[in-house]
């Protein structure tokens, strides 16, 4: 029977609705992003073809163990099958957003979320560097936990709600500890004097955020440390309702969630971090409960020999088993949170559950962009060069950075990482070859092809230093960026010179 005091009296139905529908909505975004980008990046004729990775994994038992679980281990990969998987994922996720599976027994939404989890894991496992981002495993873990939130005709399982709090703690506290242990700029409070300008993909308001006073940026860093290192622990406050009567524990947990949500919204409007911030916002809603009020859409079922606190006994056993599983898997990430050499965005098991998270342990002080240019002229030394335009990363100094998140522009993100490496990645040289071939699928990843589908004779890569214009510079030039050419990075290269 439902108690009228303590933690059991806190209704987390609203939290469950946000968790299930919000997570499903982000799966829609992830599958749409994959359907649009996977083939030119990783498809049969992609820059890093997934079939070659799968052939390598099949070549020996040792190589096979390095490949994470994927349906394509058992079903031969083709681009058509990849698209079919994405369409199936979009349909299932859209149904969950609409709340249709949640109207049935609990195993129906469970199977739907597990299908999304396994389907998207099948993609990330062969996604190589283009899927090597922390928010990929974050979405997978959230999808796995959402599978055990149950249906609308029963209360949300307490153990699963608590596991979501544990996920937020690993995500936020882990990121905070990475920063404290990382670059000095996080400790001397100067990190955000650079970050808005040098972040991977600025948004339309990033320049305005960068131009805010120095004191404001220091307050930002202090607020970040508070929101990541202190606030997440208070998400567990509703558990005190087991011993402290009244609404105070639930209110404390809800306030902590609101603080996390508010800080993430600031990151949403000042940058483009795919679905990382949106996923964190959705997860934070797990701590928003309504004390002493039942808001479930249907009446509580009558207690019986197979019903305990409104929950069928078999389903209670399943959710408790998930709790035990996470108790076992959580030892490694718990130690990692306090380890001297803390791992960031690391998984401790093949199924990517109970992961370690974190981001931006250091902040780059200068923004270096790799600009790709092409020419149709025969002589590259006397040629007129034309710049390829990307959708998200800076290029044209007058263009306002656009808002793409939660959509993930994978090519643009990896272009940001290029100047940080000691050598050019293999995918980048393949990318230049695709441009020389005027590959239609690759060109669709870009915002501007200066050759309108025709093949250039030469392409090259040049590095530039970018910085935001001051207010005075903007009034004079109407440009958002100032850029300075630094040095050639690669080329000129032509297909005629490729061995």
List the helices and strands and how they pair.
Layout: E1 10-11, H1 13-42, H2 50-58, H3 61-66, H4 79-98, H5 107-124, H6 134-146, H7 158-181, H8 184-187, H9 195-198, H10 206-210, H11 214-230, H12 248-270, H13 276-284, E2 290-291, E3 307-308, E4 311-312, H14 313-329, H15 331-337, E5 367-375, E6 386-387, E7 389-390, H16 410-417, H17 426-436, H18 440-443, E8 446-448, E9 458-468, H19 471-477, E10 481-493
Antiparallel strand pairs: 1-2, 3-4, 5-6, 5-9, 7-8, 9-10
Q: State mean pLDDT (0 to 100 scale).
A: 93
State the total count of DSSP E strands.
Answer: 10
Shape estimate: globular
Total of helices: 19
The helix-strand sequence is: EHHHHHHHHHHHHHEEEHHEEEHHHEEHE
Assign the structural class, choosing from mainly alpha, mainly beta, alpha/beta, alpha+beta, or little secondary structure.
Answer: alpha+beta
Radius of gyration: 25 Å
Strand content: 5-15%
Helical fraction equals 40-55%
Give the strand order, joined by hyphens, for the main sheet: 6-5-9-10
pLDDT < 50 runs, ≥5 residues: 1-6, 298-302
Number of domains: 2
């Amino acid at each position: 029977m439902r108690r009228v005091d303590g933690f059991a009296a806190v209704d987390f139905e609203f939290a469950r609705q946000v968790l299930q529908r919000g997570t499903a909505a982000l799966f829609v975004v992830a599958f749409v992003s994959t359907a649009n980008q996977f083939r030119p990046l990783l498809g049969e004729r992609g820059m890093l073809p997934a079939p070659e990775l799968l052939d390598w994994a099949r070549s020996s038992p040792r190589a096979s163990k390095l490949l994470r679980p994927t349906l394509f281990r058992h079903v031969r990969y083709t681009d058509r099958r990849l698209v079919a998987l994405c369409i199936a994922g979009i349909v299932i996720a859209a149904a969950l957003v609409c709340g249709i599976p949640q109207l049935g027994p609990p195993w129906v939404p469970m199977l739907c979320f597990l299908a999304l989890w396994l389907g998207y894991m099948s993609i990330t496992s062969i996604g190589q560097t283009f899927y090597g981002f922390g928010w990929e495993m974050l979405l997978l873990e959230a999808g796995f936990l959402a599978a055990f939130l149950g249906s609308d005709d029963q209360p949300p399982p307490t153990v699963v709600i608590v596991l979501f709090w544990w996920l937020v703690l690993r995500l936020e506290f882990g990121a905070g500890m990475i920063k404290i242990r990382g670059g000095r700029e996080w400790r001397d409070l100067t990190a955000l004097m650079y970050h808005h300008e040098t972040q991977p993909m600025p948004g339309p308001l990033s320049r305005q955020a960068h131009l805010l006073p120095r004191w404001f940026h220091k307050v930002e860093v202090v607020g970040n440390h508070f929101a990541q290192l202190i606030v997440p622990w208070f998400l567990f406050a509703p558990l005190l309702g087991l011993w402290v009567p009244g609404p105070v524990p639930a209110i404390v947990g809800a306030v902590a969630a609101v603080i996390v949500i508010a800080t993430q919204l600031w990151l949403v409007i000042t940058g483009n971090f795919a679905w990382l911030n949106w996923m964190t916002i959705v997860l934070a809603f797990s701590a928003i409960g309504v004390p002493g009020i039942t808001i479930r859409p249907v009446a509580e079922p009558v207690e019986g020999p197979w019903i305990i606190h409104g929950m069928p006994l078999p389903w209670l056993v399943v959710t408790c088993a998930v709790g035990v599983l996470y108790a076992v898997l959580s030892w490694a990430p718990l130690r990692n949170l306090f380890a001297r050499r803390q791992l960031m965005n690391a998984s401790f098991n093949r199924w990517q559950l109970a992961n370690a998270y974190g981001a931006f342990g250091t902040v780059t002080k200068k923004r270096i962009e790799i600009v790709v240019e092409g020419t149709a002229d025969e002589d590259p030394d006397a040629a007129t060069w034309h710049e390829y335009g990307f959708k998200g990363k800076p290029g044209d100094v007058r263009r306002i950075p656009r808002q793409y998140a939660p959509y993930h522009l994978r090519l643009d993100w990896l272009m940001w990482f290029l100047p940080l490496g000691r050598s050019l990645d293999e995918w980048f040289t393949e990318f230049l070859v695709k441009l020389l071939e005027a590959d239609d699928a690759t060109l669709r990843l870009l915002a501007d092809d200066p050759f309108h589908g025709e093949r250039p004779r030469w392409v090259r890569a040049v590095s530039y230093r970018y910085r935001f214009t001051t207010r005075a510079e903007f009034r004079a030039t109407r440009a958002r960026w100032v850029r300075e050419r630094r040095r050639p990075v690669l080329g000129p290269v032509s297909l005629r010179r490729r061995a």
